[in-house]
Amino acid sequence: MEKDQDKILSDVTTGEYKYGFYSDIEMDRIPKGLSEEVVRIISAKKNEPQWLLDFRLKSYRHWLTMKMPTWPNLKIAPINYQEIIFYAAPKERKNTGSIDDIDPELKRTFDKLGIPLQEQKHLAGVAVDAVIDSVSVKTTFKETLAEMGIIFCSFSDAVKEYPDLVKRYMGSVVPYTDNFFATLNSAVFSDGSFCYIPKGIRCPMELSTYFRINSANTGQFERTLLIADEESYVSYLEGCTAPSRDENQLHAAIVEIVAEKNAEVKYSTVQNWYPGDKEGRGGVFNFVTKRGMCKGESSKISWTQIETGSAITWKYPSCILRGDNSTGEFYSVAVTNNYQQADTGTKMTHIGKNTKSTIVSKGISAGHGQNSYRGLVKVLKNASNARNYSQCDSLLLGDKCGAHTFPYLEVDNSTAIVEHEATTSKIGEDQIFYCNQRGISTEDAIGLIVNGYAREVINKLPMEFAVEAQKLLQISLEGSVG
Amino acid sequence: MLIINNLKASIGGKSILKGISLDVKPGEIHAIMGPNGSGKSTLAAVLAGREFVEITEGTVTYLGKNLLEMAPEDRAKEGIFLGFQYPIEIPGVSMVNFMKTAVNEHRKHKGLDPLSASDFLKMMRDKKELVEIDSKLANRSVNEGYSGGEKKKNEIFQMAMLEPKLAILDETDSGLDIDALRIVANGVNKLKRPDNSFIVITHYQRLLDYIVPDVVHVLYDGRIVKTAGKELALELEEKGYDWIKKEIENNAAS
Fold first, then answer.
1. Is the Cα dihedral A18, A19, A20, A21 positive or negative?
2. A135 by DSSP, 3-state: which?
3. What are the pLDDT tens digits along chain A (482 aa)?
4. Which residue of A has its CA nearest to B76?
5. Does residue A470 lie in a domain region?
C-alpha cells in the first residue's frame, strides 16, 4: 500500500507541468541587454511612427531614474536587465494574413497547447489572439467581429490601423510613470492585444489572448488595451504558459481597460506560467500592472483571476471608479505550491458617487508556498455613498506554507460603508477522511475540497474555461499532501 | 462477511479496545450497545481505517481479505460504509458533485463506466425518494448548514447511493427527534437485503424499536461482555448499564 502511495506521489511530482515543452521555431532575436539603442531597435522592427518611439524613449529615460520597489512580501532574486533579450519573434514569412503563412511548427505549438489557430468549430464561441514571445502570430475571427464594428487585433496592427484610438487611450489608465515595471513595459513593450467594442454592441463571443513564452532568456512585455464604448459589453480572457527552464524569466505586462457610460467589461485570467521546479529553481516572474477605468457613469469592470503558475506573482488588478454609480469587482484564486510566492490583490479607488466595489480573494498555500493578499480600498472625498465589501480567505495545506493578509483602507467620506472579512483555514484531516470513506482518494479529495473553496470565484469565469480552471487547480496542487 | 478476532487498539498510547471478537454474517443486523467511553466509536473508526487508532493485536477479515491492510478508500469501494456520528462539512462542494465522484469511483472499481449525468440524477431522485429525504438537501454543499437531523438523514441517503455490503452506523440515532429516527430506521430497513449486513452502534435502545437486530452485543471497557438476541436490548433499557457493570464485577469477584 505504501509503495502505491509513493508511486502516485512520484508520478505527480515528476511530469506535472505539461506545458513545459520548447518549440524549435526559427526566431528573429535581438542581442541581449537594455539601452536606448535597444528601445530604438524594437520600435524600428515594428515600423512604428515617431510618436510611439517618443513615448518609448520618454518611458525609458524615466525608468533609468527609478528603483525596483522593495515593499512586497516577496523574496526576489536580483534581475540583471543586461542578460535579458527584449525582443524575439518567429521569423516572418510572406504576410498575407492567411493561416498558411504561419510556420507549421508554430501551428503545432498552439495545437499542443489546445489553442487552435484555425477557426475551428469546437472553439467557435471564442476569438483568439495568439502571442508568442514578442509578437502576435494570429488573430482568429477578426473578420466576423469586424462586421459588427468590433476591432480585435494585435497591438502592433492597432498602432498602424487605428493610431487615433491607441493615442487617445494608451497610458490613460496606466501612465508611463506609474511604477517600475509599468515604466519598463512602456519602453520596451513588444506586442499584445487591442480591442475596441463600439457603442451599443454586445460582443457575441469571448475574446481571448493566449500568451506563450518560448525563447530562452527572453522577457515578455506585452500590452493589452481594451476599450468598451458606451452601452457595450465584452468578456475577455487571457491564458499563459511557458517552457520549463532553470532560469527565471521576466514577464512585465500592462493591461489597460476603459469602460465608458453603461459599458461592462469582464476580464478573466487563467495564469499558468511555468512555476519553477520542486526545489524552487526557475519559473516566471509575473510582475504585471492591470488597471481598469470605469470612466462613464454606471459602467462596470470585473476582474477574475486564477493564478496557479509563476515562481512569483506580483500584481494588483485594480479599478478606478470615476463614473457615478460605477462598479468594480475583483475575484481571485491564487495558488502557491512548492516554493512559489504571490503578493497579489487589488486596488479599488472610489471617486464617483454611489460607486460599489466587491473583492473576493481566495489564497491557497501548499508546500513552502507563501501567499499574501494586499488590497487597498480608497474612498475619495466626493465619493458619497461608496460601498465596498471585501472577503479574504486563506487555505493552508501542510505546515510549511504561509498566508498573509494586508488590507489597507483610506476613507475620506463619512457616508462610505466598507466591510472586510477574513478567514484562514486548514484542509482538515476529517474532511479528507470523510471523502476517503466514500471511496474518494486523498488526491481527489483535496481537488474536490479546494475547488469547493474556490467555487465562488470559478463560477465567475466563462463556462468554457471554468472546467479548465478546476482541472488546473487540481493539477497544481497534486502531490502537495504526502 | 466480517470476522474480528481478539482486536486490541489504542489511541495515543491509551488502550481502548481490549480484545474484541465478532462474526457478522451476510444478511445480519448486529447492534453494538454500551455506555459512553466503552469503545464503540473506536471500533467503527478501526473498521473504516482511521489512522489515529493504533492496532496493537488481532485480525479483521472482511470478505476473506485482511481489512487492516486496506486503505480507507479501498475499504469503501469494497463495500464498507461508515455512517458518521458527526458528519463533516465540506463548504462549496455540492452534494451532487460529491456523490457523483463517489459513485463513479465505486463504479470504476467494479470495472463499470461512469454514469451519465442524466442517469446519475435519476439515481439521486430514486434514492432520495427511497429514504424520504428532502430534495433541496442535494443541491446544497455537503453537510454545510444542515441541522443535526439533516446531517444524519444525509448519511442514510449516501448509504442508499453507495449500496454497501457492510454498513456501520455510528450512533446515527443520537440527537434525532422521533420523525428523523423513523426516517433513518426506515432507510436501513428498506436497504436490508439477504446479502448485506449492518452494524448499528447505539447508546439507546430507542433505535432498536425500529430496526430489529439479529444479535445484540454489549461493549464495556473495550470488551464485548454480553451477546444475545434482540431481547437483550430491552433488558438493558429496563435495567440500565449498571446492571451489566455489576454482573461483570460479580463475575470478577467469584
1. positive
2. strand
3. 333 433 433 333 333 666 777 777 777 788 888 999 999 999 998 899 999 999 999 999 999 999 999 999 989 888 899 988 888 877 765 555 555 666 676 677 767 666 666 655 444 456 777 776 666 666 777 788 888 999 998 899 999 999 999 999 999 999 999 999 999 999 999 888 899 999 999 998 888 887 777 777 788 898 999 999 999 999 998 887 766 767 788 889 999 999 999 999 999 988 888 888 888 888 888 999 999 999 999 999 999 998 888 889 999 999 999 999 999 999 998 888 888 898 999 999 999 999 999 999 998 888 888 899 999 999 999 999 999 999 999 988 877 888 899 999 999 999 999 999 888 888 878 899 999 999 999 888 988 888 888 888 888 887 767 777 777 777 777 666 54
4. A439
5. yes
Three cell numbers at B92? 462549496
Domain ranges of chain B: 2-253
**Rounded CA gap, A286 and A313, in Å?**
5
Q: Is A436 on the interface with B (CB under 8 A)?
A: yes
In a domain, A450, yes or no: yes
Nearest CA in chain B to A427: B90
What class does CATH assign to B2-253?
alpha beta
Q: Verify whether the Cβ–Cβ distance B90 to A449 is below 8 Å.
A: yes
**DSSP β-bridge partners for residue B7:** B20
The residue segments making up the domain with residue A252 are: 2-477
Q: Which of B90, B93, B105 sits opposite A439 (nearest CB)?
A: B105
Cβ A252 vs Cβ A223: under 8 Å: no
Distance between B80 CA and the closest CA of chain A, angstroms: 8
In chain B, residues with a C-beta closer than 8 Å to the C-beta of A434 are 84, 87-88, 90
Q: Are A303 and A290 in contact (CB under 8 A)?
A: yes
CA distance A440 to chain B (A): 6
Contacting A with CB below 8 Å, chain B residues are 48-50, 69-73, 75-77, 81-82, 84, 87-93, 97-99, 101-102, 105-106, 109, 141-142, 158, 162
Angle at A355 between CA A352 and CA A360, to 5 degrees: 135
How many structural domains are present in chain A? 1
Name the helix (H) or strand (E) containing A378: strand A370-379
* A482 located within any domain: no
Comparing alpha-carbon positions, the chain A residue that sits nearest to B163 is A438
The nearest CA of chain B is from the CA of A2 a distance in Å of: 9
- B101 chain-A contacts, CB cut-off 8 A: 440, 444, 448
Q: Is A466 on the interface with B (CB under 8 A)?
A: no
Distance in Å, alpha carbon of A443 to nearest chain B alpha carbon: 11
Question: For chain A, percent helix, then strand, then coil, each to nearest 5?
Answer: 25, 35, 40
> Distance between CA A297 and CA A263 in Å, rounded?
9
